[in-house]
Amino acid sequence: MTRYEPDRFIQFRRELHQFPDLSGQEVDTRHRIKAFVSQFAPSRMTDVAGTGLLLQYGQDAPGPVTLIRADIDALPIQEVNTFAHRSQYEGVSHKCGHDGHAAILARLASLLAENPIMKGRVYLVFQPAEETGQGAAAVLNDPAFAEIRPDRAFALHNLPGYEQGVIVCKPGPFTPSVLSMIVTFTGYVSHSAEPENGLNPAYAMADFMLKARQAQQPDPASDDFALITPVYTTMGERSYGISAGYGEVHLTLRTQNAGRMDALTTDLLAIVSKLSAESGLVVAVSYTDAFFANENDEKAVEQIRASARMRGYDFIEKQEPFKWGEDFGLFTQTYKGAMFGIGNGIDSPALHNNDYDFNDALIEPAARLFLDLIELEHQ
């Protein structure tokens, strides 16, 4: 019998759910994780990426190096659930399941304490700031990570809308490149009765959004996939005697890979340049929340498939990438590895919905699958 009963990890997951932290602010979350996983005797435990945590299993001996990553940040969403473990913080909640991902990694730590690896090293990364696309880079750029060169890197994400526990994966692109574009339009104000004496950005902004819509190819099955989603716009003031002189358009761009993203941004910049020349507006572009595409290594996918089948888990090879971004993509751009999905339940509310909750029944099977992937390399 295991020394660490699975129910303990469900309780831990629900504790994390009750006390969520936003991206880059995971100080309390890290404290809770550190207090909980310290009982599982890691060889080394190090703070990383500002508010993350890095565990090492195995001594510094020759052999393979495997990295398993879980994200730990929450979202600025007001929870509507009324269960006992609901968020205690107004306007902040775990609506992407990162509390569950962290609990899976904690369970894996307990399994590694019970099943020591025979050679090499295993690193477990509790990564902050996934939702903003900044956490993976912070881990990789941290001096504590400088000497770690994983032979394999793995991560998962829970998948609402899929049968509970089914494993979903594919070689090649698994999640897209994602980039948020901020376009500012600067003219100058005037009396609204005399707009000819000012320079109002409204029609240029509208023209830009329509042309952006025409530049997309929203079919995820297409190699030319490019999805452009308007997420925010603002212009002027609620003062009806003033013709606006400034506005912003914020878009989120999604493509299958970095090359297609470069082509898409080039097209949009050409539109911006033409609109600026025609209107006289000063139009500027900046970027934020960049996510690299997850490029799954074929051998790593085969290891996931073999481990799933060995455990009797259903396995689905997805035909096209998901459309949501995931900053584990920076790991798969840097090291060989793969991200896979695990079904959260057919009737589960969608990710980022205010009534979503992680399915606790996934903690044990997901941790066991990760252990199998480790043992394939290290025994």
Automatic annotation (TrEMBL):
Signal peptide: none annotated. Keywords: Hydrolase. Gene3D superfamilies: 3.30.70.360, Zn peptidases (3.40.630.10). Pfam families: Peptidase_M20. NCBIfam families: amidohydrolases. This is Amidohydrolase.
